[in-house]
Specification:
With 337 residues, this protein is mainly beta. Strands 8, 9, 10, 11, 12, 13, 14, 15, 16, 17, 18, 19 and 20 form a 13-stranded antiparallel sheet that branches. The radius of gyration is 29 Å and the shape is rod-shaped.
Amino acid sequence: MDNRWYILIWDWRGGAVDGFRVYQSRVFRVGSRTVTSWALSQTISQQSQVRVALLDPRQVGTSGCFTVTAYSGTIESAKSTQTCVNAASAGNPVFESVALAPSTISPFYGYHHERTHLHYCSNGSWPNYPDGTGVWRAFYPVPVDWGMVMYEADWHAGTMPFKCPEFVTQVLRLGLIFTLPSHIATLQSATLVGAVQEANTNCSYALYTLATETTPTNPAQLSTGQPPPDNSITTAIPGSKAWQANMWLYPESLPAIAGFWTWPPGKVIQLNADVTALVRQGISSFLLEPQDSIALTTGDAFGSPAGSSFVHRNITLCQTQIRNIHLNLKYTSTAGS
């Protein structure tokens, strides 16, 4: 039709009936399975001679499958053979929507501890942190849909008996890996969403694409074989004790895809980032990275602060918790219903 409506026409060779019912398919994703249900779209009850239905795309969508039944009182016939518009059976894909939980959430922890190593600085302020840099990654045994990003940094001028600056920085990054459906034909949209818990300070973080294990740019920044210190910010993650030594979990994309701030208190913040262009390239791994002036002066949220303005001040713990993390997809499918 000129107004783009669909015309559904059928034939009935049975006896007298009260009318017909038109059903439309609804396609859902449950894990790796495609599930189809049928929802009543129209009831044609004027007379049995009416064997046509007008379907408004604004109501039924631009793609889908339909079937018809005849009814008489409370008795209803079996469903007819389905017919599809813009569907796989007609040589076109089926439209689907899905909210993907991360298949893997990978918290990444790192610290950097540095002091001048003069003889009068042998006893540091943070003895639990060996000198140098240690980085680890934790893998949950089952997928979850929440995580944290944090940073903290401390500086001490030293008084033994002369000033011998000492630094310790900690960071907790959050890697998000999604498994995309294998039957995507054309991606219409992809949005990364999550609910950000209110923080009591000005916490900021940024979203990047994720680079998996990479060689650190500074040879001194190597993993250790020991787990993170017991008093580190890793203890904020419940049940995550299986930390593994790791080379790096680092942002792959620069600049950031999006940035977020948890200030002022009470501000409602939602992780809501359009990542359609990236997912169309097959990218489905992302990183949430805490941001602060450390990153601006050293190129990272932790690392050697020597020579930066950070040597004159501390940065208090900032913890950002993000829940209900999902990747919302709208796409046309190569699979039929």
